[in-house]
From TrEMBL:
Biased segments, Basic and acidic residues type: 106-120
Disordered, as annotated region: 99-120
Stretches of the chain forming a coiled coil according to its record: none
Gene Ontology molecular function, alphabetical: DNA binding
Protein's UniProt name: HTH-type transcriptional activator HxlR
């Protein structure tokens, strides 16, 4: 299921961040983007192992939504047994690139002083 625009503005979005959050919202989608960036062209089981704690149902649902949103590509190979691989589309790669400053902020925050602490 693709993300659905919200009412209120002509295109249903208040700003670009609103649009992006519809695509990456949820606990696992950003981590799926990371996994497909670090380990391109992965099968479902490989992705599941890269994301400890995610259920098969949630992973399948998120992959379908991300495919519908155009950030993940699903390729089904005509083989026996069937083989399906997932990778990032160009938009998925651009989205991952846009998230890199947020990742850097998170890394800095996890190693830097906490709220109320004096910097060293």
């Amino acid at each position: 299921m693709a993300t659905v625009n919200r009412p209120g503005t002509a295109d249903g979005h208040a700003c670009g961040i609103d649009t992006a959050m519809e695509v990456i919202g949820g606990r696992w989608k950003v981590l799926i983007l990371w996994a497909l960036h670090e380990y391109p062209s992965r099968r479902f089981g490989e992705l599941r192992r890269l994301l400890p704690g995610i259920t098969e149902k949630v992973l399948a649902s998120h992959l379908r939504e991300m495919e519908a949103d155009g950030v993940v590509r699903r390729v089904s190979h005509d083989e026996v047994p069937p083989r399906v691989e997932y990778s990032l589309t160009e938009d998925g790669t651009r989205l991952n690139d846009a998230l890199e400053p947020l990742a850097a902020w998170g890394r800095d925050r996890s190693t830097g002083p906490r709220l109320g602490e004096e910097p060293s």
